[in-house]
Write a structure and sequence with these properties.
The structure is a homotetramer.
Chain A: E1 5-10, H1 26-41, H2 46-51, E2 58-65, E3 74-84, E4 88-97, E5 100-110, H3 123-134
Antiparallel strand pairs in A: 1-3, 2-5, 3-4, 4-5
């Protein structure tokens, strides 16, 4: 089974706006939290990837907002991989409050080096990403 | 000609991340700045709309990232309306650095009241939005 | 013994800046996380206080920055009460990475109603705050 | 006369919180905008200082909150230098809405190199900072 990580978010006051709900840009931040946890889970913390010159800036993002979320809500960000290519990876996310879908989204990332030149995803990382999709990866904590 | 407003953004240090470029969620904030300017331009400042119980939370957003932007960059957010329905409006944005396209995006908003119930866009506002698309609105400052 | 709550923070990419470290304003956000946990701990979640018209906007803040913190750092925000008056409360914070002090700070808050008029801290809340300082409160989880 | 720069801020929706006012951490961001403008005004844009390995992380900050500010408010951040030492500089700020004082604050910054080692403020920059305080600098735009 494909890996799906779960990251807990407790909504901060700073993340609300004067409509009384979470400001929409914060969901992109929480998706980043989901990605960070996913990569750590398969053994490649993003901070160590960057140290080795493997960067994944976003080239595309899309978000659907289904319900508002509120201060002190406990949310779960479910993260999985939607597609994987030699130079690109697309993550998919669902932000849940219990059984309610709050937001869904996708972000596509391209692999670049320190000079922002596109490059292939390094073989070891690619293999781990592939294994996490195929369900052959080490997925238990 | 359809209205297209231009909002100036000077990139703040706070908006950068450790990759040395603007963090991706900030573009959604700048699109909000573009929307605010567009609505003020056609005579309906969003703060006064809200006072009257006319809210426009986002229900969809999509962004394409073409180039990074940097601290102290002077950018222009070009905002126009992509489509208009009785209860929904979709804004389109291009974030430019001179002639370079940095980011493009769309956000769709649904008209709701204080209780977050969907409602029709009020007639006067609808007319002004329509006129701004048709190019019959008062568009000069 | 006076209550001191501990809140875990994992540094987000969004919270870093191009210097490669956490941007300084984020510490005020984490102090808010610490306050939220402190108030929940003594049985007065801030969201429910607000529902009852008991608001605590900040009137003063001070921060000392001792060391930088970095992406993916696991930090602890230690929160306690520095002083308590009939209308004001001052929280103290230490942000720690293991045994290292990263940042210390204080924020003072004044009790107001929905119309931002200063008022006395309600008796039950005042008692709970007092008990948490005196160490007579229910402090174990 | 000592230099005092004025930076215009238009409050963004993103900067408000569910209390309906600007979230307190944003004032530190606007102070950074004020600092950026001050340094540019005396001919040393902070982005070019950084390129030369002259960094000014904050080591202290204090803020007094006098009044709330609101979405779409036009504010002025007045920035000046409070004190200057061989390795440190302290900026002072007043955030104004017309003649009303919204917030005042100070931030102290220490000069470091890329390895975060404390160093002397480079002679040319020190001279320009000093001249801006003494009122002998080129201060007109």
């Amino acid at each position: 089974m494909a890996l799906c990580t779960e990251s807990e978010i407790v909504v901060r006051y700073a993340e609300t706006d004067r409509m009384g709900v979470v400001y929409y840009a914060n969901y992109l931040i929480w998706m980043e939290v989901g990605r960070t946890d996913y990569l750590a889970e398969i053994g490649f913390p993003y901070s160590s990837l960057e140290r080795d010159g493997v960067l994944f800036p976003a080239c595309n993002a899309s978000i659907r907002f289904f319900r508002p979320s509120y201060y002190e809500d406990r949310l779960a960000v479910l993260t999985s991989i939607e597609s994987l290519q030699s130079r690109k990876v697309m993550f998919g996310y669902r932000v849940m409050r219990g059984n309610e879908l709050v937001v869904s989204g996708k972000t596509e990332h391209i692999c670049v080096d320190f000079q922002m030149r596109v490059k292939k995803i390094p073989a070891k990382l690619f293999k781990a990403l592939k294994a996490s999709i195929d369900g052959t990866g080490k997925v238990g904590r």
